[in-house]
Write a structure and sequence with these properties.
The protein is an all-alpha fold and about 80 residues long. It has one domain. Helix 1 runs antiparallel to helix 4. The relative contact order is 0.17.
Length: about 80
């Protein structure tokens, strides 16, 4: 049980960092954090619709793994026998 908890904690940490990175990669819809880092200039160049869709799908998958690791850790914590 300790090994599973450790794996879920590592998975949660990695997916948190990856999810933050993928969210910042999304194209801005005007005014915000992405424009501060040059997201406004990339709109003039234009980005591929396929790339944006793939980024959306990958972000949703990582978010689901992140959510499931939180639920798993919560269940382990709740039902842990001391």
């Amino acid at each position: 049980m300790v090994v599973i908890e450790f794996i879920l904690q590592v998975l949660l940490g990695l997916t948190s960092l990856i999810l933050t990175f993928f969210i910042l990669l999304h194209r801005g819809r005007g005014g915000g954090l992405s424009d501060m880092f040059g997201g406004g200039m990339s709109q003039a160049v234009g980005s591929s619709g396929v790339a944006e869709r793939n980024l959306n799908i990958i972000t949703v998958i990582v978010a689901l793994v992140w959510f499931l690791s939180i639920v798993g850790l919560g269940l382990i914590t709740k039902f842990q026998v001391i």
